[in-house]
Amino acid sequence: MNEEYSSKHGKYYTDTEIAGLLGISLGRLRNKLCAGSPLPPRIQPPGCRNRLWPCQAVHDWLEQFTVTVADPAAHDSQPRRRGRPTKQEARARQLVSRQ
Fold this sequence. Notes:
Blueprint: E1 5-7, E2 10-13, H1 15-22, H2 26-35, E3 53-54, H3 55-63, H4 87-98
Antiparallel strand pairs: 1-2, 2-3
């Protein structure tokens, strides 16, 4: 059910579409609203039970959370080995931290 509303200021999403866009259920979206979690800006017309989410504002809000991937080649050190460090490794680390 795609109920994208439009007006002179642009198009609006419904709660269902926002939940789908964020990858959460409608119930989880409602919980986030009640908890005051950070969400995109929304419009709640007076005397109306539904919320409208301006499309452009939602996409601008999502752009804030763009994640860049670190270059894996930047780490030239050897990967840490599994398990507890040997006594020799522990002593070497203590000597380095004392200096």
